[in-house]
Design goal:
Distance between the termini: 98 Å
Number of strands: 12
Length: 710
């Protein structure tokens, strides 16, 4: 029931019985929008003692009458006694409306009843907040004028959100802000909101916790203390599930060693399952991910929410903690310093699976493009200068191979996260924990998650160590660096279209300029670049946080966990966008690629086995000066080669090895000079021995042959 105290009852009555009979209203005051003219409107409070709530426009009404008030103005006691019965009947229909407050202020400008100043301190300490209109009054609406809105008052004293101010000495029909503020110091009507509850801790009582919130006082204090990033724990559902896994494993261990009853164990298990099976209660994890206390607020949020869910399953009200207590049961044999990092590692392990999936799909997309472009010859480049020919397929396959090596590294080293210190409690000495708790809880965690959790060899060392986080972050950084490099290449290869490389076309997803018509920018690789920059920066922050551990604890694990989870989120989303909106839609400009090869000086390298470095240099120089093709210079201008020799040496298949894997690959390779390496086997090109020396000039080749190098 609303407003139990006598003072609160007064406030509720004054706000609820908002229509004082028109006989109590002076002529000078405006009528309420819901009132109708009456011949008795000239009567005053001093001549009448009836207080009537009239039912107008579908609103509820109540009637309070007193013929024996001790004076023309009812005393507090007389008024309270009269309205208390009606309060019980209509509590569910009370309204706190700004128009009501305004009208009451207008009435109080002219009338006041006796006030007991001894209650002043109690009134100020009562919290007053808006309560939502219930079904009995949900259709209540009024139209407020601009002047009325301007004159609405919200007087604040300490932590009290709103008050209705009243005084007999206001200068006008509507109180000014200053007058209302002054009046608040001596005359305040306040009522406690039914939607809040009170809990207490070491620092005292806190009465601003929402009544139906699953969290408790520790969470509420964290919300008040850490409005940092605006990113709540609920943003990372894997973290919440990880906390539930850890708490359920701990409850299982405590039950096995006989520290909690079966009733409490089952209640905690049910609560944890509700967090694991759906996101329904994840919204109560409202703590900011960045917080002081090495994650204590996160751990206590989990303890409180799980305790309240457990008590609800036992038909106990939220906040009672009569059977299941956040500290004594949910957090039994644990500390934030072992429960939080264990849950954090599990969260990263759970979350990384999404990124692994997207990384695999991206690698597959590069493979498909590599197969699609395997016969398209283009120029390779070193230091942005022409190098030697290659295929576009080889380039895209190299992208896939680069990421594939990191994928294997990521999947292998994630297991380092599954070494935990659960049971080490505060600093690794296992104080307050049962001697079998660590083993039982880690075994339970393995069974619940199907992951290879192991116990740390040294709990004291593990309490302050973040080495597994550092390792995982470094792998993310490595993937980000390579992915960013690939995006740089895609932007270069698609540059143009007329004055750049223009060897590939990226899918057009948006107009590129607000001023340059027809321009299309490589926006998807650009956004992926930025994701990678963020991950690299996060790794730097994680390194700093890891280094700043002191003695037996690292107080900065919340920053580490937030950056890891955020990096995983960003990379997962970025890799998906890169694949779907860019890689899958890339097309090749084969004619442009061929033109670059035909006009390149770089293909002169293929002539080395036949004419040597010095003559090849002369061919390149002459081709540059005369702007003639390399083949023409080598055959017609300098006469170093015959036409057939030039065609054989400059054959595209010979220069790129694109025929590798074809049925006639071996026969065709045998018709060309030995190259030393090819796609099929870097170790043996067309023979049992390495033919690297085929690039050497005859004297050097003979020297190595005589030494048995061949």
């Amino acid at each position: 029931m609303f407003f139990r105290s006598r003072v609160a009852a007064e406030a509720a009555a004054l706000m609820t019985y908002w229509r004082i009979l028109r006989t109590c209203r002076p002529r000078s005051l405006p009528l309420s929008p819901l009132s109708s003219p009456s011949s008795s409107s000239s009567r005053t409070l001093s001549s009448h003692s009836e207080f009537i709530m009239e039912k107008e426009r579908g609103q509820w009404s109540a009637f309070v009458a007193k013929n024996s008030f001790s004076s023309s103005a009812a005393t507090r006691r007389e008024l309270n006694a009269e309205i208390e019965e009606e309060e019980e009947k209509h509590a569910h229909q009370w309204m706190t409306n700004n128009d009501l407050k305004l009208e009451l202020q207008q009435l109080f400008n002219h009338h006041r009843y006796n006030n007991n100043k001894n209650n002043k301190n109690n009134i100020k300490n009562a919290a007053s907040t808006k309560s939502e209109p219930t079904t009995g009054a949900q259709n209540y609406t009024t139209t407020k004028t601009t002047k009325q809105k301007k004159n609405e008052k919200k007087c604040v004293v300490g932590n009290v959100p709103e008050y209705i101010c009243r005084s007999s000495s206001f200068s006008s029909g509507v109180a000014t802000k200053k007058e209302c503020d002054d009046a608040t110091k001596t005359l305040v009507v306040a009522g406690r909101n039914e939607k809040t509850r009170s809990e207490s801790d070491l620092l005292g009582e806190l009465d601003t916790i929402p009544k139906n919130a699953l969290y408790g006082i520790a969470t509420q204090r964290a919300v008040d203390n850490y409005p940092i990033t605006g990113v709540k724990l609920s943003h990372f559902p894997e973290f919440i599930r990880a906390l539930a896994f850890v708490k359920k494993a701990a409850a299982t261990a405590n039950f096995k060693v006989g520290l909690i009853s079966k009733e409490i164990f089952e209640a905690i298990s049910i609560a944890c399952d509700s967090l694991l099976d759906s996101n329904e209660h994840h919204g109560d994890f409202i703590v900011d991910v960045i917080q002081g206390g090495a994650g204590t607020s996160t751990n206590m949020a989990a303890n409180e929410i799980i305790a309240n869910l457990a008590n609800l399953s036992l038909n106990k009200p939220i906040g009672s903690y009569e059977i299941v207590h956040p500290n004594d049961h949910v957090n039994l044999c644990q500390s934030t310093n072992d429960a939080y990092p264990t849950a954090a590692k599990l969260a990263v392990g759970l979350h990384h699976e999404k990124m692994v999936c997207e990384l695999k799909l991206l690698i597959q997309s590069f493979r498909k493009k590599g197969d699609e472009f395997k016969y398209i010859v283009k120029m390779g480049r070193t230091q942005l200068q022409d190098a030697v020919p290659m295929t576009l397929g080889q380039e895209f396959n190299s992208f896939a191979n680069s990421l594939e090596s990191d994928l294997a590294y990521l999947m292998k080293n994630v297991n380092a996260l599954y070494e935990c210190n659960l049971g080490g409690t505060a600093i690794g000495t296992s104080i307050t924990a049962h001697k079998e708790f660590s083993k039982e809880s880690i075994d339970a965690l393995k069974d619940l998650t199907k992951l290879p959790f192991t116990s740390a060899k040294d709990f004291v060392e593990a309490s302050s160590s973040t080495s597994s986080f550092l390792l995982f972050s470094s792998i993310l950084r490595r993937i980000a660096l390579k992915t960013s490099k690939i995006c740089n290449d895609l932007r270069l290869l698609s540059s143009g279209p007329r004055c750049g490389f223009n060897e590939i076309d990226l899918p057009a997803v948006a107009p590129g300029s607000s001023i340059m018509p027809g321009k299309i920018n490589p926006v998807i690789p650009e956004v992926m670049n930025q994701v990678c920059f963020q991950v690299i920066g996060a790794d730097a922050a994680i390194s700093m946080a890891s280094e700043h551990a002191q003695l037996q604890l690292n107080a900065f694990e919340p920053l580490i966990v937030y950056n890891l989870l955020n990096s995983l989120d960003s990379m997962t989303n970025g890799l998906k966008v890169l694949r779907e909106k860019c890689i899958d839609g890339i097309t090749a400009n084969e004619d442009v690629c061929a033109s670059h090869v035909n006009n390149s000086i770089g293909i002169v390298t293929a002539l080395l086995p036949k004419i040597g470095y010095k003559k090849a240099t002369l061919v390149a120089k002459t081709a540059l000066e005369t702007n003639k093709p390399v083949s023409q210079v080598a055959t017609e201008v300098l006469n170093f080669l015959s036409q057939d020799e030039a065609e054989t040496l400059l054959n595209i298949e010979n220069m790129t090895g694109v025929v590798a894997g074809d049925k006639n690959a071996e026969a065709k390779r045998n018709s060309y000079p030995k190259r030393g390496v090819d796609i099929e086997s870097p170790q043996s090109a067309g023979g049992d021995k390495c033919n690297f020396w085929s690039y050497m000039y005859p004297p050097e080749r003979q020297l190595f042959q005589s030494a048995g190098a061949m």
